Amino acid sequence: MSAFLRYIKSFSDYLLKERNYSVHTHESYVRDVTQYIAFSAAQEENPEVPNAKSLRKWVRDLSKNNIASKSIHRKVSSVKAYARFLAISKVVAEVPSLEVQLPKIKNRLPSYVKVSELSQLLERLENDIIDYPTALEHIIIATFYHTGIRRSELISLKAGNLNIAKAELKVLGKGDKERLIPLTDEILQQIHRFLKIKSENDIDSKYIFCKFDGEKLKEKWVYSLIKKLLSSTFVDQKSPHILRHTFATHLLQNGADINAIKELLGHSSLSATQIYAHNDIAQLKRVYKDTHPFSD
């Protein structure tokens, strides 16, 4: 089997260094491709170069083993990314055709934190700031909510990404795509206070948000932090990505154009942003009460 995995290390480096994928996404893609290669080898097919026949067999096997539809979609995306990498690396002359019918994903509205809950949480964290660790906790969740950036984007932010004079944050997203996010006076003041506390503690780092020793934050640490902080809310999922959902949902509920939200989130297509075009039940009840003639 090891002979069939000779390109995995290069693929791994390609995802991290050239595609700028997060550690979590990178690990998932490498694991998916390794699983696909193992499956193809067991089927006595040539697993070195993905092909539609073996990919279809794998999808059927995954479905038969009750793997979630969303996971199957990601696994196929991983294999397709690997196929593109092989073509870019000149291992194959062209990207192999990998047409395969995928199971439908049930549309699930994204969870988000209510404005009142998040306001209370941010206010409590701000009032509890007494040192660098508590200041770091507050500014991380505040930045997530005010900018909608991804976890991998937040921990990679450097001093050069922040332009206080222009009130802008330059973010390097997926596929090395840069985008500018405007900053409100509120988050600018909070960042300024955090940087002051950071300086007072003589913390020298190229990263805006860092550990006490100046080292880059770990993705797992940030995930655990947000999970802990959101435990006081009623949102059913507690993760950094929920704050991204919250950012987009609150903007949309307050009248933001969906195309503008797309640009702020760094989505490559509008379809990825349209999941936020929903109303919560409280808003639906208000609309009903205000507009239906017999609502009283």
Quick structural overview:
This protein is mainly alpha-helical and 296 residues long. It has 13 helices and three strands; from the N terminus they run αααααααβββαααααα.
Kindly describe this structure.
This protein has helices spanning 8-18, 23-42, 52-64, 69-88, 115-127, 132-147, 151-155, 185-200, 219-229, 240-253, 258-265, 270-273, 281-291; strands at 162-163, 168-172, 178-182. The chain has 296 residues and is mainly alpha-helical. Strands 1-2-3 form a 3-stranded antiparallel sheet, with no helix packed on it. A hairpin with a 4-residue loop joins strand 1 (162-163) and strand 2 (168-172). Helix 1 packs antiparallel against helix 2 (23-42), helix 6 (132-147) packs antiparallel against helix 8 (185-200) and helix 6 (132-147) packs across helix 10 (240-253). The termini are far apart. The model has no long low-confidence stretch (mean pLDDT 87).
Strand order of the largest sheet: 1-2-3
Mean pLDDT across every amino acid position: 87
Helix content: 40-55%
Coarse shape: globular
Any descriptors?
three-stranded antiparallel sheet; mainly alpha; 4% strand; 13 helices; 296 residues
Question: Which helices and strands appear, and what pairs or packs with what?
Answer:
Blueprint: H1 8-18, H2 23-42, H3 52-64, H4 69-88, H5 115-127, H6 132-147, H7 151-155, E1 162-163, E2 168-172, E3 178-182, H8 185-200, H9 219-229, H10 240-253, H11 258-265, H12 270-273, H13 281-291
